[in-house]
Design brief:
The complex is a heterotetramer of chains A (117), B (306), C (96) and D (114). In chain A, 73% of the residues lie in helices and 0% in strands. By secondary structure, chain A is mainly α. Chain A has one domain (3-53, 66-116): Helix Hairpins (Orthogonal Bundle). The longest helix of chain A has 32 residues, at 70-101. Helix content of chain B is 78%, strand content 0%. Chain B has helices at residues 2-16, 22-44, 56-74, 86-89, 92-102, 108-116, 118-139, 145-160, 163-186, 194-212, 214-220, 223-246, 261-305. With 306 residues, chain B is mostly helical. Chain B folds into two domains: 1-77, no CATH class; 107-305. Chain C is an all-alpha fold and 96 residues long. Chain C contains three helices and no strands. Chain C has helices at 2-22, 26-50, 56-81. Chain C is flat, with a radius of gyration of 18 Å. Chain D has one domain. Chain D is 75% helix and 0% strand. Chain D has three helices and no strands. In chain D, α2 (33-58) packs antiparallel against α3 (62-92). Chain D is elongated. Chain D starts with a helix and ends in a 22-residue tail after the last helix. Classes of the chains: A mainly alpha (117), B mainly alpha (306), C mainly alpha (96), D mainly alpha (114). Chains in contact: A-B, A-C, B-C, B-D, C-D. At the A-B interface, α1, α2 and α3 of A face α1, α2, α3, α5 and α6 of B.
């Protein structure tokens, strides 16, 4: 009876995979990959909510009655590009950390921090 | 390594989303460039994976508990695709039913993006611009002349391997640029618009710079100009709002831009999409150039040290 | 017919993903990504026809281009990743 | 007339589907990278063109056909180039072909024929 909810379950599973990668890995780039997966799951969540049974893409055409909801599409469209920009910023930070510490493993960075101060 | 799988994953996610429209264009465009950036960053940092996972069991338990709670939460959600979900009841019918009279743009996504929700979009564009500035601040290098020759030599030796690729790309690039312009101006009638067009345009430039070397690409598109254009796009977007304010409407109220409200809406959306396209394209180019410049700088340093 | 072709392509995509996950070398994965991209282009065109709204074709074109760009980029940078890059400067060089 | 177009379009679609499935099986079953590459590179381009031609016959609307031709041209350009570059990069980075028992089905066949 709950089978109609499967889209949310897929989203939750993806989101948890991303979450697990973020908290369980020490490698900063892997953490960013996890964040990206998390982000993608949110995108899928919005887009699947916008879907209406029997509806098509929200571009007005002749003889089409039902459209999907255009609002989530707009939000996600902008969010994707913003997501790339912010991911790039995170990667830039990682590259700088690598240059400064010689490592992108969280624990090694911590160790170096502790030893210097 | 994780890179190949990452590319596959993102691609397949967006295939799964396919029943919907424009988001997909955007997604496929995003998948390409973000994979590339991720890969570039991996080559710049470390590729061996010697990370010790700290307490995977604890993490797993946290994840499982959170997931179970979230799934419990979904039990009250409306079913997939049901037409009477709350999200479809409130503002969406107005967008769907009235926008043809009010705005007259066939693609509803464009009309919502450019007109009804212009404030949101403005915010997003500013965020993208800020991210570009951030990358610039973090990664820009003042290149020293003695490294230049070494970097050039490295580039040339790289290029000898890719002769066929270079020729094919030389043929393809004009078409990619043309297609980007098509997407930009076709956004009113089909899937497309400033965001997608900007990314495609940037992708063409990135392709060029990858195969022909950064210094060559910088000679064609110099970076100060790109930075200026990024700012210009945001400025264009904002000034459309200010002009409509001065003409007696609200901020981003395009009805007053022309005598005929619908024509005013068209003009406003066109200008705004142009601003978005300029900003997105130049910010992507800036991000990529800086990553690549940093990488080549590092390589030059390493070669110089040895 | 279109439905049959769509199903066939879905099957091939699953095979490609398997190869991408299993693939012993980096190049196997890139190969799988490339194949996946081509099949996605075909799938998009087929789906556009299946749903009767050929607007999807634009997306297919974009996907073809972007797939090529990302594969090229990964190849270009995998030179740096690959174990031994023989950087021997050849004397005759094109204008660059 | 209509039925002829219909049947030929179906034929093209089926051939394309068959070719791509065989490519997929090849990718799974072949022993080393270069033979997998051979399987994909050769079948992929032909399968794509077959399916696109089949679709073109389905829809005689001009703009759609133009777009399909565009996709076809792109595929014809991009696929062989990509597989060529891939094989070359693999060879360049010392990924040796599997040369021993089964003889000569390996060489870096870059599928520029299709």
């Amino acid at each position: 009876m709950f089978l109609g909810l499967y889209n949310y379950w897929i989203v939750v599973v993806l989101m948890m995979i991303g979450f697990y990668i973020v908290i369980a890995h020490g490698n900063l780039i892997k953490k960013l990959v996890g964040l990206t997966i998390f982000q993608t799951s949110v995108f899928i969540f919005y887009i699947s909510m916008a879907k209406v049974n029997g509806g098509t893409a929200p571009i007005v055409g002749d003889g089409i009655e039902i459209y999907s909801n255009p609002l989530p599409h707009v939000l996600i469209l902008t969010a994707i590009v913003v997501g790339i920009a912010t991911t790039a910023l995170g990667l830039a930070l990682t590259v700088r950390i690598k240059e400064a510490y010689g490592s992108i493993e969280e624990e090694e960075i911590q160790k170096k921090d502790n030893s210097t101060c | 390594m994780l890179s190949g799988i990452y590319g596959l994953l993102s691609a397949s996610f967006f295939v799964a989303m396919d029943a919907v429209d424009v988001a997909f264009t955007e997604a496929s465009v995003g998948a390409g460039i973000s994979t590339l950036l991720m890969f570039l960053a991996i080559t710049m940092t470390e590729r061996r994976d010697h990370s010790v996972r700290h307490k995977p069991w604890l993490a797993l338990i946290v994840v499982v508990v959170t997931g179970a709670l979230l799934i419990y939460g979904t039990l009250d959600m409306p079913y997939f695709g049901s037409a009477d979900a709350p999200i479809h009841v409130h503002v969406a019918p107005r967008y769907i039913n009235d926008s043809m009279q009010e705005i007259g743009v066939i693609n509803l996504v464009t009309s919502v993006l450019g007109s009804y929700r212009a404030f949101d979009t403005f915010g997003e564009v500013v965020v993208i611009f800020t991210a570009g500035v951030g990358v610039l601040a973090l990664l820009s290098v003042s290149r020293r002349p003695e490294n230049d020759a070494k970097i050039d030599a490295l580039n040339v030796s790289m290029h000898e391997q890719h002769l066929i690729l270079r020729i094919v790309i030389k043929i393809l690039i004009p078409f990619i640029l043309l297609f980007a312009l098509y997407v930009q101006f076709h956004g009113d009638y089909g899937p497309g618009g400033g965001f997608q067009a900007g990314v495609i345009f940037a992708a063409a430039v990135i392709l060029y710079s990858m195969l022909f070397g950064l210094s060559t690409a910088r000679r064609v598109i110099n970076q100060p100009l790109t930075q200026f254009i990024a700012a210009l796009g945001v400025l264009l977007y904002g000034s459309v709002g200010v002009v409509s304010l001065l003409n007696g409407g609200n901020f981003f109220d395009y009805n007053v831009l022309s005598d005929d409200p619908v024509a005013g809406q068209h003009l406003g959306i066109l200008l705004i999409e142009a601003g978005v396209g300029l900003t997105v394209a130049s910010v992507m180019i800036i991000i990529f150039f800086n990553f690549q410049g940093r990488k080549e700088y590092g390589q030059g340093q390493a070669k110089g040290d040895v | 017919m279109i439905a049959v072709a769509t199903i066939a392509i879905l099957v091939v995509m699953i095979l490609a993903i398997t190869r991408g996950i299993v693939g012993p070398t980096l190049y196997d994965r890139i190969l799988a990504v490339n194949m996946f991209g081509t099949k996605t282009v075909l799938l998009l065109s087929l789906l556009g026809f299946l749903m009767g709204r050929p607007e999807f074709l634009d997306i297919a074109i974009v996907y073809a281009l972007i797939n090529f760009i990302s594969v090229t980029g990964i190849l270009r940078y995998s030179d740096a990743l690959g174990s031994t890059v023989s950087v021997d400067e050849k004397p005759e060089k094109k204008e660059s | 007339m209509g039925t002829v177009v219909e049947i030929s379009s179906g034929f093209f679609l089926l051939v394309g589907a068959f070719l791509s499935v065989s490519g997929g099986v090849g990718v799974m079953r072949f022993p080393d990278f270069y033979s997998r590459m051979h399987a994909v590179g050769v079948t992929d381009t032909l399968a794509a063109s077959m399916i696109l031609i089949g679709l073109m016959l389905q829809m005689p609307e001009s703009l759609v056909v133009v777009k399909l031709i565009l996709i076809l041209l792109l595929t014809l350009f991009i696929n062989p180039t990509a597989s060529h570059a891939l094989a070359k990069a693999a060879l360049h980075n010392n990924l040796a072909p599997l040369l021993d028992k089964s003889g000569d089905n390996n060489a870096g066949d870059d599928s520029s024929n299709s």
